[in-house]
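The authors assume throughout that readers already know how a fold can be written as discrete tokens. For illustration, here is how one protein appears when written out as sequence plus structure tokens:
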Amino acid sequence: MGPTASGKTGMAVELVKRFGFDIINVDSAQVYRGMDIGTGKPDRATLNEAPHRLLDIKDPSEPYSASDFRVDALHEIAHILSVGKTPLLVGGTMLYFKVLRDGLAAMPQADAGVRVEIDSIAKEKGWEEVHQWLESVDPKSAARIHPNDLQRLQRALEIYLISGKPMSQFYMEDQARKAQENESLPFNLHFFAIQPADRELLHQKIEIRFRQMLAEGLLEEVSGLFQRNDLNETLPSIKSVGYRQVWQHLAGDLSYDAMVERSIIATRQLAKHQLTWLRSWENLRSLDDPSDKSIDSVLKYVESISI
């Protein structure tokens, strides 16, 4: 686990070289085909060396939820274990890790009409206004969800509008039920996270990486999506950090310079949000960086529990 631009993929590839790991992608944007540059997806040479499961499994027009991920991840984990290898889950979508670990609360199904209503308010008044609305009806969920995390923000408010009950209450009731029924996974999860101590350095890496994405053709990549008739900025894929801002630039809503600035700011906010998740994660083994020392510490731990 770890924030964006912290070096997770590079470290995972090095781990695969040294141990019988099989990588499972835990990134909500990398599941989409044709979204390669802006998601930081590994290149073809890297994937040949260290294949990733749950990569390029959806078209950008298709929503992909945390519940979808859990079903797919459980299937992949079972298959990897059945052939005598060790699953290595790698990514920065903390909600996916949480849902895998804790399971899913039984919540209302998505409602297209409610989502249109939320999107209309967001378009008219901004997503900050939507976040304030959520805060007024579900302060616990609002405290966990950043205003830029549009997909989770929309879902939390949607749940309240459909059911009249806060999403946080669904989670509490579900945790109580699971504790009573003593539910558990058929395998153990061990969590490591890259948590850079130097936040300023991380911010610099984020800016350098985004500008490199632009140099590699991010505008052209998003332009290809923009020209499709079946995609729009309300879809989870297009709401991804970077894609949303470039989409707004192509739509004429942002200048090029404003797009660059907002993309970098949004990515830094995402990293901050990811680090906030990690601070409250139970039984987390922290790594300062993706160095050889960190790789060795992971391998020593794996070997100790394998004996």
